[in-house]
Structure formats: structure tokens, C-alpha cells
Amino acid sequence: MIENHAEARPQSGLALADVVYEAVAEGGVSRFMGIFYCGIAAGNVSLAPVRSARTYFLPWVLEYDALYNHVGGAGRCEDDTVDERAKALCQIDQYRIKDMDQFGISFPTCYRNYDRLDHPVATEHTMVCQTDKLYALAATRGWTNVDAKGISWDKKYEPWTFKDDAKEADRGAAISISFVAWKGYEKEYGVKWTYDKVKNAYLRENGGVAHADLETEEQLQAKAIVVMFAKETGPVDDHMHLLYTNIGSGNGLLFQDGVATKITWQKLDRTARTVFSDSSGKEITFTRGQIWVEMLPIGVTVQY
After folding, report:
1. pLDDT-flagged residues of the chain (< 70)
2. Does residue 116 contact residue 9 with C-beta atoms inside 8 Å?
3. Which residue of 11, 99, 107, 113 has the lowest C-beta tally within 10 Å?
4. Assigned domain for 284 exists
5. Does residue 105 sit within a domain?
């Protein structure tokens, strides 16, 4: 889990995620969950700033049976101050998620770096975790690429389907995609993706400036942008926790190869793969490369 508070940017590691999920954590401030696999195969990657768990990211974690790295989260089972539906820590236990909570991890796997940016930041914006050490620690807990019976993690995994880049002549015109999850938060949290026809990639801006990765010093870019509209509920307790309905079905948009397509999404249960389909019901085939999944409240306008 990587935060997106304006004071925490630029983040570390997002450029090397295979998939990035983005949704509001609270108060109009979004949070990212990166899925790291192929993008970090060549070596260690620093992840920062790592922040707390939220319940609606857990169904996505379960799609991959992934290691889940975070710093604490909303609500243990016995915490009466948190709405039952928002108790992320409780649900992590109940769902038997491979929990890599920093509260149980010490230096040098995870640590606070107060000097990672060129300006002072609050303590909550300083947690860094290292992917190679996370994998090594997970192995000591019995979490590797195979289970206790030697069965590979992807034996029952249902991947999306992929294709090569469209030929440049077949790509759409240069367009930009812009939205903000909550009105009034445009200045710091408005998102804009601008399509580069030559690169066949969408370049990200956040809060009106190019959104870069601290480690690569390059602007974040993706091959495909998926927008899924979901029901937002809350705040549901005094901690201002939100809920998003990302189990079920709904509508969305796909941007890839310079083309905008109206789509639907469906996730049959907590562990099922989210399936994205076009208007005819055919499952989407993604252009190879990084995918961003933007979960927005139903009713938000996406301009393009």
C-alpha cells in the first residue's frame, strides 16, 4: 500500500508495478496498491511511503493470492470504534491473507527514512520497504511461489489476456483523460493522463504537475487505464472510513491505444478475478505493459 498525500510525493516503486490500483482512502486523498511481479524480477525495489490497509483493496489482493505489505490499518476485530465493514486488519486475518504488516517487520526490511524527499515530512510519510527483503522474509513464513504441497501459486490463477501494441497508424489521436474522485480536491488530487501516440502510453499528472517516481526520476506512464465506477458509502464511522463496492458488477471506461471504450466490470466473489468486458460482452484484451485501475465513485465525470 503506497499513499498519495500531496506531501508524500514523489513515491517510490510505482513505476515498476505491473498493475496499480487507485482508490480514495479518506478525505478525497487516494491510495495506491501496486502489484509487483515481472517489473521487479531484475532486482530490489524501494517502496514508499507505505501506508495502512483498507478493506476494499483486500478483494484485489485475493485475486492474486499476493503478499500484502502495509503499515497497520483500520480496525482489529475487537475494535468497537470501527464499523464492522471497515475492519481491514480483522478481515486480513479472516481471509487468511499473506500479511506483511510492517508492525511485525523490523529494519532493514522496512524502516523510516526522514530524508527520502528534499523537504521535511510528517512521520506517517516516511515508511520505506524493500522488495527483496520482503520476499526473503515471506519465505521464512512459508510463503513462496509454491504451497506446502509444491503446487505453484499460479496453478489456479486466471490471467487477463494481452496483445502487442497497435500499429502507430491504427492508434487513436492524442487525447487527455482527467478526473477527480471528490469535487473540491482538484488542486492537489486532480488526475490527468495524456496519451503519447508515439510511445503508445498515457503519461500521468497529479495535482497539475507531472507525477514522477522518485527512484526512476521519470514520469509515471501506463499502457492501459481502466476506470471502474463503484458505489461509495460513508464515512461509516468516526474514523471517517469509506467503503467501496468492488464485488459485483458495474460500468467503466478503458483507455488504450489512444481509444476510449465503454466497458463493464464483474467480480463474482471476494477471490474471483475482476473481468472487464466490452459492450458485446467480450473480455478485454490489454496491451502489454503497466495497467492502472482507477476506482471512482459512481457519478464522477471523466473528461476525455
Report:
1. none
2. no
3. 107
4. yes
5. yes
CA 68 to CA 58: how far, in whole Å?
9
Please report the pLDDT score of residue 120 as a whole number: 93
C-beta of residue 47 within 8 angstroms of C-beta of residue 58 = no
Q: Return left, alpha or beta for 72; rule: phi > 0 is left, psi -120 to 50 is alpha, else beta.
A: left
pLDDT, tens digit (0-9, with 9 covering 90-100), for 150-159: 999 898 899 9
pLDDT in tens, 251-302: 999 999 999 999 999 999 999 999 999 999 999 999 999 999 999 999 999 9
Cα 160 to Cα 284: distance, rounded to the nearest angstrom:
8
Task: From 299, 302, 204, select the one nearest 261 (Cα to Cα).
Answer: 302
Residue 134 and residue 226: Cα distance in Å, rounded? 28
Element containing residue 272 per DSSP (H, E): none
Q: Please give the grid coordinates belonging to residue 231.
A: 458505489
The domain of 29 spans: 2-297
Task: Tell me the helices (H) and strands (E) count for the chain, helix number first.
Answer: 4, 22
What element of type H or E holds 99? Answer: strand 98-101
Residue 302 counted as domain residue = no
Q: How many domains does the chain have?
A: 1
Q: What is the pLDDT of residues 241-262, one digit of tens each?
A: 999 999 999 999 999 999 999 9
Query: What is the predicted pLDDT for the residue at 156?
Result: 86
Cα(304)–Cα(71) distance, integer angstroms: 36
Q: Domain containing 191 — which CATH number?
A: 3.50.90.10
